[in-house]
Specification:
Elements lengths: L1 H6 L11 H15 L6 H8 L3 H4 L6 H13 L11 H18 L3 H11 L5 H16 L4 H11 L26 H7 L1 H12 L11 H22 L1
Helix pairs in contact: 2-3, 2-5, 5-7, 5-8, 6-8, 9-11, 10-11
Length: 232
């Protein structure tokens, strides 16, 4: 205080550390040097804090990566108002692709974390739930939505990989809400999961069939190419 008074300057105020600041800084550092060079120490240096301060907001590296994914998903545009299902889905997927072009490291992280987790991150869950809702609002049956989600795969998030696992596993989420809250929060995902898991009369059967999904996507692609060939 005496030193500040002698020099005539006030003590500099520090912006409070928050989870949002940690995640946004981590994303910016990954954009600069790639995700492999990212570390808690580098993030702490960028925020001018000691590394241990970060662990109050992100428990470990995987939690950091999950949070970064949620930041990126938050950059995807919402559905266009009044648009038909095809226009709305296409617009969101292209928005997701623009997001990934801004963050070239993201596809590898999204793919690895979605495969490692028992359930996707909350932001990804909400995004996928909204996409299922667009298909359902467009008149798709639950079975056809299930096929569509496999066909679209990670294109829903702007790149090209199959991300939807058909076998249980992955890291349990200690913060996952109870089933009834999950159902209320993600009604479209819940309806799809229940149909696939329990409805023996569903067009997709009682669970995912890798061969059937592969052939469905192949036939869909060939049918589309055939239609284009006929117009040329």
């Amino acid at each position: 205080m005496e030193r500040a008074a002698r020099t005539g300057s006030a003590p500099r105020s520090r912006t409070p550390l928050s989870k949002a600041r940690v995640l946004v800084t981590a994303v910016a550092l990954a954009d600069e040097g790639g995700v492999d060079a990212l570390s808690m120490r580098r993030i702490a240096q960028a925020l001018d804090v000691v590394p241990m301060a970060l662990y109050k907001h992100v428990a470990h590296k995987n939690a950091l990566l999950d949070g970064m994914i949620d930041v990126l998903v938050g950059e995807i545009d919402p559905p266009a108002e009044g648009a038909d299902w095809k226009t709305a889905v296409r617009g969101r997927v292209l928005s997701a692709r623009r997001m990934l072009l801004r963050h070239p490291w993201a596809p590898e992280v999204i793919e690895s974390r979605m495969k490692a987790r028992a359930t996707p991150t909350p932001a990804v869950m909400a995004y996928l739930d909204s996409m299922i809702g667009l298909f359902r609002a467009g008149g798709f049956s639950i079975g056809l939505v299930h096929h569509a989600m496999h066909v679209m795969g990670s294109r829903l998030l702007g790149f090209s990989q199959e991300l939807f696992q058909d076998t249980p596993g992955g890291e349990p989420d200690p913060d996952a809400p109870p089933p009834e809250e999950m159902a209320a929060r993600y009604p479209h995902i819940t309806a799809l999961a229940m149909a696939v898991a329990h409805d023996e009369d569903s067009v997709v059967g009682s669970g995912c069939d890798d061969q059937a999904e592969f052939e469905f996507a192949l036939d869909l692609t060939l049918d589309g190419l055939e239609r284009l060939l006929a117009t040329n």
